[in-house]
Amino acid sequence: MTEMSSNGTQATNGNSVHSNVYSASSVEEIRAALAELGKRDASVTARLDELLATQKDLTRQLGRLDLARAQLGTQVIATRNISNGILAPAAGTAHRISSAVKRLDREQAAVKATLDVVEQVAELKSCVLGVHGSMGAPQDWETAASYLHRASKIPDSVIDGAFAEEIVPTADVPDPPRQTLEAAAESLCGLFVREFDKAAGDGDGAGVTRFFKLFPLIGRSDVGLDAYGRYVCSGIAARARNNMSGGQRREGLFYANALTKLFEHVAQIIGGHEPLVERHYGPGSMTKVIERIQMEADAQGGLILETWADERRINRKLTDVKSYPFNFLVQSFMPSQKPSGTNPRTGSPAPGSGRTSEDEGVDMKEVDALLNESAVMLGRWSLYTRFLAAKTTAHADNDAETKLIVPAFVAHSTLQKKVTDLLLEPFNTMATFFIRRSVEKSFQLDEWPSDLSLNPNKQLGSSPPFVTSAVDDVMYIVNQVLQRTLSTSQKGVVSSVVPSVGRVLGSDFFGMIQRRMRDESYPKAAIQGALPPEAVIIQFLVLINNLSIATDYVKRIVRTCLGPSTQQQQNEASKSAIAENFPFGHEATAVERTLRNVEAGFESKTFELINEAIEVMLKQVMRPRLRPVMIETFRDVDYASDPSDPGSDAADEASASESTVPQRFERGWQAFTLPIKRILTPPAYEKLLAATVSYLSRTLEKRIWSYYGRVNELGAVRLERDIAGIVAAAAKGGKYELRDLFARCAQMTLVINMEDDEWEEVGKLDGAKLEKETGVKWRLDADERKRVRAIVKERTITQGWSNGRIEDASRLLCRAESTPTYLPTIDTDDMLSSLLTTLSLAALALGHTPKPYCSCLTDAEAFDLVNGFRIVASIAPGYEAVANRTLSEDFISISDGVNFAARIPLNTTETTSRAQLLEQEAQLPPTGAVRDIFVSHTCDTITWYFEFATKPLPTRGIAILFVNAEKKIYKSYREVNNAALLYNLGQPECQPNFTVSVGNQGPAAINATCKSCVGS
């Protein structure tokens, strides 16, 4: 059985074993062959046993199949009997009936078709006889036309059929029906044309309408539309000749108005007659009339443009414009001597050159008038084109989002060519000349702002922004040219003029300012080591303002031209002005891109030059002014005073002079930055401030390195406070990001003041792991941190310290904590706590219990709390959330003044919790704005003198606010002027008690600095 396997594998194996048995040459080979045969025998035996075991199931299944076959055989016999006995006769009967019905339907259709032909022939005969009769003596042209219209609905196969030719002719009308109808239609067409022309000549509108409606009935729509076109065109020509031949003076916008009237007349005709034409001639019929009208518009519009070009001498003007030399601009960019004056009125490069340029130029008023007239005519032509496009595509596609397409008969018309030759191209040339000549003229007549000074005590003679007159003049012209260009609604004009404006701004305008910065107003000292002259510095600052303000103007002009943003358009569901004026294809996108390119190109140039100018200011002005300030700031400052010296009082000296360094720096810093700040524009000053602060940060870093080995531990605390004060003064009035520039300095002072155990932990880590553990983005690498750590020469805090020194150190650290440490990403609370813990341990080692140190309010925290209390007191929006942040839950408020006004017994607590205060304030009317008059604070107490803007009398009051360790107000004593309060609440008898003792405007606001919380 194995050798009969289907795939032959077993047989092959068997033959192999058999051959091995007979080819064995040793006992081992024979034994191996016998073992293999034994395995095969066992396998075959197992397979046979398995087959025998399943034989019973196979037999059982075969029996079931035989039983099912017997049952199905019975059913087959029954089904066959039903089919032969019942269904076969029924199918035959149904087939016979169906065949009969189909034959009947065919006969019925044939009869119906015959009847239709007979009816159509009868209708044809009636129409032929009706036409013949109506064209006879009655001359009823409407009836004859209606008969012809009825006959046109009969199929040609019926009219030309033999049956119709046999039945329709009569003795009166012997011709075949087709010939009779054609002859009648031709005769009526000629008659209608003559009558239509006669009515048109007589001005008979009713007659024109009567015969115009009859042409489609006789199948002569083309003839009717042509006749109507001639009629309309004659009216257009007559109106146009009347407009041009009037006795008016041909000045100003005469030709623009004539062209406008022509287009308006055409639009009125199309809009007014379109319903009549479409109703009688079918949808789309008006397009043919429009094409015919456009031919007349070409002739009349071309005549207007040619007359305008001749009258205005456009060719001569273009020749003058193209040959204009621009002497002033050309000579301005040539090498020349610097002007001797310190504040020149203009930047004229050579004497007399400005006058020569004026005399040999083109009259700018004439150019402006021509541009204005051309823009009006181009705008009317664009509007007319959009109108025709809308009329000719209205029936083609009703999708409102479909872009309009200029009709071919307009795009290739003679008027379009003349518009291009006589309007568009001259406009592009003259507009480019106009903007460039305006720039030249503006710089010729340029005037500088007067009475500017770097003396902070001297009043400025004008109001900001401080720019030369050329900026306002040029930007006014730029806005005018761009608005005029967009009003033409011509993509060809925009794609030519707008880039030209950008080129003029980027070359002539920008180049003139750049040349002045380089040649006339460069802030360079006359002698080495001195500062540049004040007048030159002011001129340079004004030129920086010119670039900054010009950039802002260009952005605003482009934004105005583009209209609302895309988001606003979506919210308002309206199209932008650009999309409405440029509806063809993707013109709106191209126009918007062109405008944005001008803005981006000009901004990139000015941005680069402003940055270069800032570098010049930094190098020539800010750095020389900053060096003496830094020298004066750290004059006589010693961070290595020995507190153990019995003959010195180092801690008291440090306490007394701890604010000297920041105050010196702030005075010197503001002395040379504030005068520049009040002249420069805010964006330019921010750049200059950022560059100066960056240089200051590097200078401070060098200063810290210079103290290597000259700082002790208390000196390190003072150094940190001084650096923080300098950072605060430098960053005041600027963006908070300026503090990030001092990150290295801040981290240096942080490392200097670290405890030994903290330093050991930091020293073990580096890179990302260190930043993750400390939460600080380190700007100092490991080697730099080690060098910084070594700046402090001593690290033993308890040697030689007396009890008084511990108190001095506590007081010094208390004050250090009371001033904010300006580290953008570092929390110094842990550092201060570690230092104070060390001080406490040192004091205990000496057998002395130090007084608990305080956590003093900073100026910023004090004013933040006052601002929060003001919001709560004035019931401003969001006052509940502010109260939760500013007031403690057990807040107590005591005020006899408020109690008296609220009819609460005196000498009682006004409120005993924050919730009660909020409930009480919610029942009071809003008091209006609150003005600070005086604010002062100690470490845990704030004194606040304020004024409510109540009407008609202001209400002043004073409050003492007590602050807990969580920097929240837990108690307040406040009193208000009850006379004014009650008078405002409707008690006029209180008015005599009210006296304004500090003037109608109230006392001036005063902000006092923090007072020490530790006694001296």
From TrEMBL:
**What is the source species?**
Elasticomyces elasticus
Tell me which UniProt keywords the record has, alphabetically: Golgi apparatus, Membrane, Protein transport, Transport
Q: Mind giving the lineage of the organism this protein is from? A: Eukaryota, Fungi, Dikarya, Ascomycota, Pezizomycotina
Q: What's an example GO BP annotation here?
A: protein transport
Q: Which PANTHER family match?
A: CONSERVED OLIGOMERIC GOLGI COMPLEX SUBUNIT 4 (PTHR24016:SF0)
Q: How does it sit in the membrane?
A: Peripheral membrane protein
Which Pfam families does this entry report, sorted A to Z? Answer: COG4_C, COG4_m, COG4_N, NTF2_7
Compartments it resides in: Golgi apparatus membrane
Q: Spell out the InterPro entries in the cross-references.
A: COG4, COG4_C, COG4_M, COG4_N, NTF2-like_dom_7
Q: Principal place where this protein is found? A: Golgi
SMART domains associated with the record? Cog4
Q: What is the official name of this protein in its record?
A: Conserved oligomeric Golgi complex subunit 4
**Polar residues compositional bias: what residue ranges?**
335-346
Similarity field: Belongs to the COG4 family.
Tell me the name of the encoding gene. COG4
Q: Which GO terms describe its cellular component?
A: Golgi membrane
Span list, region Disordered:
335-362, 640-662
Q: Which residues form the COG4 transport protein middle alpha-helical bundle domain?
A: 181-518
Residue stretches of biased makeup (Low complexity): 640-659
